[in-house]
Design a protein that fits this description.
Helices cover about 75% and strands about 0% of the residues. It is an all-alpha fold.
Length: about 300
C-alpha cells in the first residue's frame, strides 16, 4: 500500500522549512520592523506600544511569506527543470493551493494592519497593490525576465512600501503626513533589499551551477561585488540622512556610515579570491550590514540624549 499524502499542515511546514527558513526570516522581519519603527519614533516622536509592535511585526513577516509564495507560483514551471526538488515543482503543493494560501495570508495581513490603525491599513493596501503587480511581473514579464538586474530592482521596490507600512503601524500617522526625513527610508529600504538580492546570488567560481543564473556569472566577481557595494553606499547614505534629519549626535551618524566599511573589505577579499570561502564571507558580511543597519535605527531613539 502507498503511504497517505501529507496533510495540509505537514505540507506547509515542509514549504516553510525548505523555502522560508523560519529563524532567519523572523529575525529579518523583526529587524526590518524595528528599524523602520525606530526611524518613525525619531522623526515623528511617537512611542510604539507593544500591541502595535507585535501586530506590525507579524504583518511584515506574513508579507515576506506571501511574497515567497508568489515567487514559487511564478517559477514552478521553470523550477521543474532547474529546481525539481522545490515543493511546487515536485508536486507537494499545487499552484491552486498556493494561491489560496496566499489570498488567506493577505486577509490576515489586512487584519493585523487594521489592529495598528487606519493609517497602517492604508499603507498595507499600497504593499498589496504593488505585490500583485510584482506577481504579474508588471505585465511585461517576457521582456523583463531576461534583464536580471532590472528585474531585481523593480521587484525590490516593494520594500519601500513595506517600510511605510511599518512606519505607519508604529506611529499611527498616514504616509502623506510623514515628515520628509521619514520618506528617506523608502530608498533606504529599497537599497537594503537590493543588497540582499544581489549578495545572495553572488557566488564563488566553485559554487556556480550550469543553467542557474547568478550576478557573479553575469557580471564576473568584480561586477557583482560592485553591484552590492553600490547599494550598500546608497542605503548607508539614506540612513545617515534620516538620522541627521532627526538631529542625532554625530557618533550615531558615523555609525550608520561605518557599517559599510566591512562590506568593502569583504568585497575586495571576494574579488581577489572568488572561491566558496570568500563568497560565503561576502554574503555573511552583507547580511550583517542589513541587520546592523536596522538595529542601528531601532536603537537610535534610545541613544539620543535626554530632552532631544
Amino acid at each position: 500500500m502507498s503511504e497517505p499524502a501529507p496533510g495540509f499542515a505537514a505540507r506547509w511546514w515542509t514549504f516553510v522549512r525548505e523555502r522560508f527558513e523560519p529563524i532567519g526570516h523572523v529575525l529579518m522581519a523583526g529587524a526590518f520592523f524595528a528599524g523602520n519603527a525606530g526611524a518613525a519614533r525619531l522623526l515623528v516622536g511617537s512611542r510604539v506600544s507593544a500591541g502595535r509592535a507585535i501586530c506590525g511585526g507579524l504583518a511584515v513577516l506574513i508579507v515576506f511569506l506571501r511574497l515567497r509564495i508568489f515567487d514559487e507560483i511564478k517559477d514552478h514551471l521553470t523550477d521543474r527543470d532547474a529546481h525539481p526538488e522545490r515543493p511546487l515543482a515536485r508536486g507537494l503543493i499545487s499552484p491552486a493551493e498556493a494561491k489560496a494560501v496566499a489570498a488567506a495570508l493577505a486577509v490576515l495581513e489586512a487584519a493585523l494592519a487594521l489592529c495598528c490603525g487606519l493609517p497602517a491599513l492604508t499603507a498595507w493596501f499600497g504593499v498589496l497593490v504593488f505585490s500583485l503587480l510584482m506577481y504579474r511581473e508588471f505585465f511585461v514579464g517576457a521582456w523583463l525576465r531576461p534583464k536580471m538586474e532590472l528585474y531585481a530592482v523593480t521587484h525590490t521596490l516593494v520594500a519601500g512600501w513595506m517600510g511605510l507600512l511599518a512606519a505607519a503601524a508604529a506611529s499611527g500617522i498616514f504616509a502623506w503626513e510623514m515628515p520628509a526625513g521619514l520618506w528617506l527610508m523608502v530608498p533606504a529600504n529599497w537599497a537594503v533589499f537590493n543588497v540582499f538580492e544581489f549578495a545572495r546570488k553572488t557566488w564563488g567560481a566553485d559554487e556556480e551551477r550550469p543553467g542557474i543564473e547568478s550576478y557573479s556569472g553575469r557580471l564576473r566577481p568584480a561586477g557583482a561585488a560592485a553591484l552590492s557595494v553600490g547599494q550598500v553606499l546608497l542605503a548607508a547614505g539614506m540612513i545617515f540622512a534620516a538620522l541627521r534629519a532627526a538631529g542625532m549626535p554625530r557618533a550615531a551618524l558615523w555609525t550608520a556610515l561605518g557599517l559599510s566599511v566591512p562590506t568593502a573589505a569583504a568585497s575586495l577579499f571576494y574579488v581577489v579570491a572568488p572561491r566558496r570561502a570568500a563568497a560565503r564571507t561576502f554574503r555573511g558580511v552583507m547580511t550583517a550590514f542589513i541587520l546592523g543597519s536596522y538595529l542601528t535605527l531601532a536603537a537610535a531613539p534610545f541613544l539620543r540624549g535626554p530632552g532631544r
